[in-house]
From TrEMBL:
Protein name: WD repeat-containing protein 41
Principal location listed in the UniProt entry: cytoplasm
GO CC annotations, alphabetized: lysosomal membrane
Subunit (UniProt): Component of the C9orf72-SMCR8 complex, at least composed of C9orf72, SMCR8 and WDR41. The complex is formed of two protomers, each individually consisting of one molecule each of C9orf72, SMCR8 and WDR41. The protomers homodimerize via an interaction between C9orf72 (via C-terminus) and SMCR8 (via N-terminus). Within each protomer SMCR8 (via DENN domain) acts as a bridging protein between WDR41 (via C-terminus and N-terminus) and C9orf72 (via C-terminus). The C9orf72-SMCR8 complex associates with the ULK1/ATG1 kinase complex.
The protein's role, per its UniProt record: Non-catalytic component of the C9orf72-SMCR8 complex, a complex that has guanine nucleotide exchange factor (GEF) activity and regulates autophagy. The C9orf72-SMCR8 complex promotes the exchange of GDP to GTP, converting inactive GDP-bound RAB8A and RAB39B into their active GTP-bound form, thereby promoting autophagosome maturation. As part of the C9orf72-SMCR8 complex, stimulates RAB8A and RAB11A GTPase activity in vitro, however WDR42 is shown not be an essential complex component for this function.
Example of a GO biological process term: regulation of autophagy
Gene, per the UniProt record: Wdr41
Source organism phylogeny: Eukaryota, Metazoa, Chordata, Craniata, Vertebrata
C-alpha cells in the first residue's frame, strides 16, 4: 500500500484547472528553458521547438544534433555595436555544441572539437563568456572562440557547474568539488586563463546536485544523501545534513518499514533555494532545510511514488515537484500550531532546592521550544496529465506552468479562472467593436 499523501477532487488551492497539451515530439522531452516572458524551448534528443506559451503555437523546428541533448543554456548576446540577440546553446552526446538564434531559428555556429560529451553549460553574462564542462573545462566567447581550457580532469568529467563571486566557478567532478578562477590574460584583450585554486573532498559519494543560494552561499548534494552548505567566498564548509531518511532525526514523520534501502531512495536528485531555505528532492521525498537554523524544518518522506526529479519554490510559500511516476504536485509550507508546554512539576527535591538547576534548564528548553516554529508540507494540488516520468517544469507566474515528460508531451497548465476571465474580456471587446461598427453603418 502506498504511503503517499493523496488529495481529493476538490482542490480548492490548486489554480491549474485548465491545460493545453502540445504534441509533436517523437521522443523524451528532457529539458525546458525560458527565453523571455512568454516563450520556452522544449528539448529532446534530435530537435527542439520554440512554443508561444499562451497559444502553444510552434514557431521553429530545428535539427542539428545526432544524439541526445545533454545540456542547454540561454545566452543573450550583445557587444554594443549590434542589437541584443537571444541565443541558445545546446550540447549533445554527439560531442558537439551548437549555438542557435531564437528569433530566426537558424544555426549560428557549431563546435565539434570536443573529446568527450559536454555534460553542463554555464553562461557568465558579466564576463560575456560561457563555459562547457566535460572531461575538461573550456572557456568560450560569444563568437565560439576557445579562450582557454583546463587539462584533462577525469574520464567521468564535470557533471555540474555554478558561478561564484570573484570570477570563480565551482565544478562537480565525481566526489570532488573543484574551484576554478578565471582571469584576463596580460597578452591580449581577448585572452583568458583558467586556474584551479582549491579542491573540496568532503563528500563521500558523487555529487549529484549543485546550486547557488546567493553571493555568499552555495549548496551541494550527493548520491548518498549528503547536503553540504559552502561559503562562496572562501569555500569553507558551513553546515551539512546527511540524515534525511533517518526517522529518529525527524520524529514527527511516520517511518516506513523496509528491509533495505536502494541508492535511489537516498540520492539528492535536485536542489533549489529561496535564500532562506534549501529545498531538496531526496529519493521519493521533499525536504526543507533552513540555512539559519542549519536543520531540516519540514519534510514529506514519500511525496511521490517514485523518485522526485525536479523541485521549485513558488513565491507564495508553495513548492512544485515532479516525479518518475508521472505526477506533478503542489505543496504549501505551513507552520504547525504549537501545544503549550507542560509546567515543571514541583516536589520533594524542588522544595529543598535540589531541583533548581534542573528547573532552570527546563525553563530554558521550554523557552527555546516556544521560539522555534515547526513546519510541515501540505499537499494542495495534484496535476494529473502525464503518463510517464515528468523530467522537469518551468513556472511562468500568472501565465501558468509548463511540464515536459518521457511520454513525448508538453503540457501547459493554466489558471482556469484567469483564462475564463480573459476569454470573457476578449468576447466583450469583440461585441463592443461589432456594436461600434453597426453604429457607423
Amino acid at each position: 500500500k502506498s504511503s503517499v499523501q493523496t488529495i481529493g477532487e476538490e482542490q480548492i488551492q490548486n489554480p491549474y484547472t485548465e491545460l493545453l497539451v502540445l504534441k509533436g515530439h517523437q521522443d523524451i522531452v528532457r529539458f525546458l528553458v525560458q527565453i523571455d516572458g512568454c516563450r520556452h524551448f522544449p528539448i529532446l534528443p534530435l530537435i527542439f521547438h520554440d512554443f508561444v506559451f499562451q497559444t502553444g503555437e510552434k514557431l521553429h523546428e530545428l535539427h542539428g544534433h545526432t544524439h541526445k541533448i545533454t545540456a542547454i543554456a540561454p545566452f543573450s548576446s550583445s557587444d554594443g555595436t549590434e542589437e541584443e540577440t537571444d541565443l541558445i546553446i545546446t550540447a549533445s552526446a554527439d560531442r558537439t555544441v551548437i549555438v542557435w538564434d531564437c528569433t530566426s531559428g537558424r544555426q549560428v555556429q557549431k563546435v565539434s572539437c570536443f573529446h568527450s560529451t559536454v555534460k553542463c553549460l554555464t553562461v557568465l553574462q558579466r564576463l560575456n563568456v560561457w563555459l562547457s564542462g566535460g572531461s575538461d573545462l573550456c572557456v568560450w566567447n560569444r563568437k565560439l572562440d576557445l579562450l582557454c581550457k583546463t587539462s584533462h580532469l577525469t574520464d567521468a568529467g564535470i557533471s555540474a557547474l555554478v558561478e561564484l563571486p570573484k570570477n570563480c566557478v565551482a565544478a562537480a567532478v565525481g566526489k570532488e568539488l573543484i574551484i576554478f578562477r578565471l582571469s584576463a590574460s596580460n597578452t591580449g584583450s581577448e585572452g583568458w586563463n583558467v586556474l584551479e585554486v582549491k579542491r573540496l573532498v568532503d563528500h563521500q559519494d558523487n555529487i549529484s546536485s549543485l546550486v547557488s543560494v546567493n553571493d555568499l552561499t552555495f549548496v551541494t548534494g550527493s548520491h548518498v544523501g549528503e547536503l553540504i552548505v559552502w561559503d562562496a567566498l572562501d569555500w569553507t564548509k558551513q553546515a551539512s545534513e546527511c540524515n534525511f531518511w533517518d526517522s529518529s532525526v525527524h520524529p514527527d514523520v511516520q517511518p516506513e518499514i523496509k528491509l533495505s534501502q536502494s541508492p535511489n531512495e537516498t540520492s539528492v536528485q535536485h536542489l533549489t533555494s529561496d535564500e532562506e531555505c534549501v529545498f531538496a528532492a531526496v529519493g521519493k521525498g521533499i525536504y526543507v532545510y533552513n540555512l539559519q537554523m542549519k536543520r531540516v524544518i519540514a519534510c514529506q518522506r514519500t511525496a511521490h511514488d517514485s523518485s522526485v526529479l525536479h523541485i521549485e519554490k513558488l513565491p507564495n510559500r508553495q513548492l512544485i515537484s515532479c516525479s518518475e511516476d508521472g505526477s506533478v504536485r503542489i505543496w504549501e509550507l505551513r507552520e504547525k500550531q504549537q501545544l503549550p508546554a507542560e509546567p515543571v512539576p514541583t516536589g520533594f527535591f524542588n522544595m529543598w532546592g535540589f531541583g533548581r538547576a534542573n528547573k532552570q534548564a527546563n525553563q530554558a528548553a521550554k523557552k527555546m521550544l516556544e521560539n522555534t516554529p515547526m513546519y510541515f508540507l501540505e499537499l494542495v494540488g495534484d496535476l494529473i496529465g502525464h503518463s510517464s516520468a515528468v523530467q522537469m517544469f518551468l513556472y511562468f507566474g500568472e501565465l501558468g506552468l509548463a511540464t515536459c515528460s518521457a511520454d513525448h508531451l508538453i503540457i501547459l497548465w493554466k489558471d482556469g479562472e484567469r483564462e475564463s476571465s480573459l476569454r470573457s474580456l476578449a468576447l466583450f471587446k469583440k461585441l463592443a467593436r461589432n456594436g461600434d461598427l453597426q453604429l457607423k453603418l
